[in-house]
Design a protein that fits this description.
Amino_oxidase, Zeta_carotene_desat/Oxidored, seven-stranded mixed β-sheet, alpha/beta, five-stranded parallel β-sheet, FAD/NAD(P)-binding domain, FAD/NAD-bd_sf
Length: 422
Amino acid sequence: MNLGIIGAGATGLTAGWDAIRAGHQVTILEAARELGGLAASLDVGGVPLERYYHHIFRSDRDMIGLIEELGLGDALRFHKPTTGIYRGGKLIDFTSPFDMVRFPEFSPVDAVRFAGSSAVLKAVRNGERYNDLTALAWLRKWAGKKATSAVWEPLLRGKFGDRAEQVSMAWLWARIHCRTFELGYVDGGFERVYAALRDGIDERGGKVEFGKAVETIRQEGADGPAVVHCADGSSYSFDRLIVTTPQPAFAKAAGLPADDAVWKNQYLGATCFVLELDRSVIPYYWLNINEPDFPFLAVVEHTRMIDPSVYGGRHVLYIGNYVEREDWRFTTEPGELLDRFVPYLQRINPEFDRSWIQKWHFSKAGFAQPVVTPEYRALIPGHETPMSKVTLATMAQIYPQDRGQSYSVAMSRKVTASLGLR
């Protein structure tokens, strides 16, 4: 079979890897000039580093299995990084269960309710029982008003803004149930995984082509080939096409009508700074910002997990956000945006000075975080599309999880198996 794949992220590259080993011809078309999709990398001190913070959990069996399959198992290391919360002008340890129940705003009853509700969510195996519930309503009832207002609500509002009250409890269950205290990272970055997939495809006669922004996808007749036209004027014809782009991008390229379900789920954009610093800023790997006036969601000091010597002695700090694409934090020129963020970094660490920043990078993606409401599940499109030779495999079809490298690998393998490509 002559297989085309749109997107060289985790889903597309895994599908290409499996299909070409099964004897099919594979061509992957990627709009960007780099591998990895939302896990794409930039260079820090001569070492690839993800544009948006990435790690995996002990529970991410599909990604771990793929890493081992590619011969990179020895490069995957698990760490026990620290977590904090910034609230009330203070840094609060929030790494262990003991830290959590000692949260300064909790009474003994609050601590018990917080711990008990979290334990329930870890114990429940099927999160779809929460499909019809909103997260904040469930949390106020079971975790308690204090734990919700101090811990959960600031996080949900920081991530989803005005849509926080609509977020599904099934989505939050997945965030708690599937996560582990240990985090995994590949020596040299996840770029090594995606490069190994690309190299494996290349070595077997497949192609990964960059700068191929897709303009249209059509099918010739009821059972004819899928035809892809790209912005650079090139075109391709495939026996079968797998599309891994976000739903709206696929709907536009495929010319689907406005009332088609594929348009209906909503996405937030993501923005992320990577700061290369000459010293550390926070005493944690991950710092949640639980102050409503802050313009960003989280600060992640990657070199609290991976030694700065890996990056030429630079300390690496991410400043991450999920925002509407019309929001000023998405549309502002990056240099100006960083200037506006600096005073908030100084609130976290009063000693912080802009001179600590030796170099910075900025990335943004328009479709990075689906807004998972109780109605979301009913709006998830199937993998089959109105074109019989075109299959959709995108992050919105990962439920109740909504993205993540391991879930992308699992979905890719489910799709290729269903199409007889493995």
